[in-house]
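Contributing new records

If you add data, match the layout below exactly. Sequence lines come first and carry their own label; structure lines follow with theirs. Keep one chain per record. Anything else will be rejected by the validation script.
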Amino acid sequence: MEKLNGIIVLGFGGHARAIADIALTCGFHRFIFVDANARDEEHFQGNPVLRELPSSINAQWACIPALGDNLKREQQMLRIEKLGWPIISLIAPSSTIGVGATVAPGSVVGHHAHVGPMASIGRGCIINNGAIVEHECQISNFTHVAVNATIAGRTSIGEYGFIGAGAVVIDGINVCEKVTVGAGAIVVKNITKSGVYVGIPAKKH
């Protein structure tokens, strides 16, 4: 792939703007936002907001899904993959990525976040500003780790998970798919059933 000079951001909500902010710190300056709810001639910092995807893109552009909803973000990725267009990940320069850690396409690692050594971040994930994903954790596809949440070492989070702002999952925990952990909750044992978990210690709501 040639050196990229532009990003197509799929969405124009709060998360899409946060992605653009991260992309700016990565050296990108050209964006096209795509959102079905865009107003006529809407722009963001001089960049157009369109209702529909462009008919094609050249090799110097790539796409990133930018909806906060995990399932909808997956649908965005599937649509782009069907078109055969490139999908990138974005990693804020102020974040830290440990040795051997991997971040899959379509994922975002926000400002001052930390991904520890040998950790694995799946496709279409959000590791939000200030979040910590420690050593050897596995964050499965289309999961959102919110601002200032902490995932301690050797923990796994299943697909479509949401770990709320300031929540903590202690080390060595396994959390199944489609689990929401409320803001400030602390998970101290394995979660084997999908649902919403809140409180200290976290319990199914």
